[in-house]
């Protein structure tokens, strides 16, 4: 029998803070094998000895041996013990001097795996907000998480989980949890003027998933698609990744300029619009242009994506009726999200589809994540059906109106003469226009260093260069934080003015 080397020569590193013992022990033994400290054919000490020497349960050591055996790093010999496998590839037995060097570089002439041609279509910058602390001033598209009824949501979730049926735990079909789809159809019919049945509603992870799937389903490479300018960059990214040619259509005080779309690309296959509250400028699409847009789509055999991202929050009168409710030809795809009305971590939204599009959309959706989490859908359904959603919307409408008021007050105070803030009538953010000589992107970066999150308007422009400003969210922060943030933002802008001068 070969003499076994003392195990302390392997110099196992102590476990890191919070690292499970099994994970630590497995990683250390595997590293000893792959680095060459344990040679092929070397016999491992007994599980009892290892357990005693390193103060870990024998079951942990046994589990580690079983894992290494299953992965081919060791082999078991009946009546003899456990040994390092003798047939490990040479590339796994590198010396410690080159341990950190990538395998591909050591192999000599190995090719580096590349990306597809499709990945090149994702090159357009897509502004993404990283999560910040709750209540940070001016975060666009961020709801008032400080006012969300978490305790109530927890009660509903706990009740739903305790009563969950086997069929619910088994999952739902790609269209989503049927009772939730019914609740969404009823809500949209009464609150937004959407004409649909539950069969036309598909539950998704949010608007971005709807944009990605519809762009790929409806567009061929080089097809033209009308896009608001400035507009939501996530929609631009989805269209371009599908190979579409994006046709920027300027937005004015009446919204999407349909006449210019007809001049620039009358044969476009699709139009993306946010008619109730254009993102990011905040204007509404006039009735005349709504009818012109529908007429074009009907005559051209084109599609319209209506993104209804935050229209519930209208501070004057009732929310504007959806464009989808005026559609008689079945060409409008209506989409919305609970991630903005409730909380971003929910990851639930919906699409209301023309009947002929439901089946292909569901087939396409099933290729990805199959369906959104069934339990979360059931909890949301209870939240809506029991009346809590409507109550929450009414409460948020009042709170957002107060927070918008605080921002407009700041526009007359510390931000006066620095930002021309638009007094919008709906939504969760607005635009503050800057002097055209000031760099909005650099002001955005400087504000971030001061703990303020704004977004440069230029990030949402495609062709236009005639406007300059910052997108300012007002929903996420209480009035006091908005006023204090306005003071800090004014200092940032003044510094740039002095630098320019």
Walk me through the structure.
It is a single chain. With 501 residues, the chain is an alpha/beta fold. Helices cover 40% and strands 12% of the residues. The protein is built from 17 helices and 14 strands. Strands 3-10-9-8-7-4-5-6 form an eight-stranded mixed β-sheet, with helices on both faces. Strands 11-12-14-13 form a four-stranded antiparallel β-sheet. Helix 9 (233-241) links the parallel strand 4 (224-229) and strand 5. The longest helix is centred in the C-terminal third of the chain and has 25 residues, at 388-412. It starts with 20 loop residues before the first helix and ends with a helix. Residues 1-8 and 94-106 have low confidence and may be disordered.
Question: Which features does this protein show?
Answer:
single chain, 501 residues, alpha/beta, Arc Repressor Mutant, subunit A, Aspartate Aminotransferase, domain 2, Aspartate Aminotransferase, domain 1, 3 domains, 4-stranded antiparallel β-sheet, 17 helices, 14 strands, globular, disordered N terminus
- Name the CATH superfamily classification of the largest domain: Type I PLP-dependent aspartate aminotransferase-like (Major domain)
- Global outline: globular
- List the domain count as a whole number: 3
Average pLDDT works out at: 87
Number of helical elements: 17
Report a brief summary of the structure.
The chain has about 500 residues and is of the alpha/beta class.
